[in-house]
């Protein structure tokens, strides 16, 4: 199959004006006093909701524009690239901060977990590119208007400082693309994922000294990276460093599974090897090329191998080396039989291949396939190909790296992962993909 039938009225990523979200699965009691009611779980796993969608319990009263989301996404992509490329001190000032542990905007999908005894519930951003879980704390010196803050004094099991012997530092600074920052102290307490999955002496960060407005307005972040402090590493004795997720469309609910619950999905997936990179908390895979329609683009595999390919839940739009993106754009434009959008690009726009599909209810898109090693082909659906909420301006949802240095890093963003099951088997050295994961 070389084409995808795309009904844009149903599949917009930013479709806020229609809510087909099912009835709330949280308890009926609303959050108050910094505490959330205990959520009911979807399909036996942790419930994943889009941060800006109608199913979310984040405090956004007005969703940001597409331009704002992609601007924050560019900051994150910039910082990730800075980790793997050489650049001048001026580029550091432009693209990241050396003293921070995190980078850019913090993704688009939330999970709800509990900290302390009794559990205090928090909505955390799901992030495979970070290895430290942190939450806003009530003991803050400079406090933000976060939806909820952890109260250490209300937990009978909390202890201040590190509870992992190999970690000597007591805290660190985090930073975001909107120039917000927070100093975070380490603390240890009980982590409650599900009633049967409770972990004692879980180390996390407690935000106490904050600057800026933290435009994301969420309770914190769940680090699912490969580092020693990640949720994956700290729960390894029970879950064997296995987890899976399905990132839902904007008006639905996905799931996050750990351990055997994740492994039970493996028979329906196709796997490729995880590429080992020393001292990296990111998940690298071996991308071999790109196909548009039924034609493989003429791109040497060495282009992808030079800097590697990352699977990232926090980046929105997939980033490609400029030579690769140029060939993808040319092939996509050749295959699309629809008029181009006449809207002028704004400064900072990263999507430059856009179409006017107004008046067209169904659009035949050329299929885009990402072939990985071991014969694993990931076939993208309409939501992984087109981005937008205005039918007169719908864009190819890929972008080229737009930095001042020679960047060949590829980042597979969450836009291209929506509605898929993605399974990470770290000890097995593999990652699996499958369709219809949120159904």
Explained architecture:
- This protein has 439 residues and is α+β, with helices and mostly antiparallel strands.
- 14% of the residues lie in helices and 31% in strands.
- The chain is built from eight helices and 28 strands.
- The strands form five sheets. Strands 3-4-10-5-9-8 form a six-stranded mixed barrel. The chain has a four-stranded antiparallel beta sheet with strand order 16-15-21-22.
- The model is unreliable at 8-20, 22-42 and 86-106 (pLDDT under 50).
Describe the structure concisely:
By secondary structure, the protein is of the alpha+beta class. It contains eight helices and 28 strands. The protein has a six-stranded mixed barrel.
Any key phrases for this structure?
six-stranded mixed β-barrel, four-stranded antiparallel β-sheet, 439 residues, 31% strand, alpha+beta
Which helices and strands occur, and which strands form pairs?
Elements: E1 3-6, H1 8-11, E2 46-50, H2 66-82, H3 89-95, E3 109-115, E4 120-127, E5 134-136, E6 159-160, E7 171-175, E8 181-194, E9 197-211, E10 220-223, H4 231-234, H5 236-239, E11 242-246, E12 254-258, H6 260-263, E13 270-275, E14 283-285, E15 291-292, E16 295-296, H7 301-307, E17 309-311, E18 318-320, H8 322-335, E19 354-355, E20 363-366, E21 368-372, E22 376-379, E23 386-390, E24 393-396, E25 398-400, E26 410-412, E27 421-425, E28 430-434
Parallel strand pairs: 4-10, 5-9, 17-26, 18-25
Antiparallel strand pairs: 1-20, 2-3, 2-12, 3-4, 3-8, 5-10, 6-8, 7-8, 8-9, 11-12, 11-27, 13-14, 13-28, 14-17, 15-16, 15-21, 19-24, 21-22, 23-24, 27-28
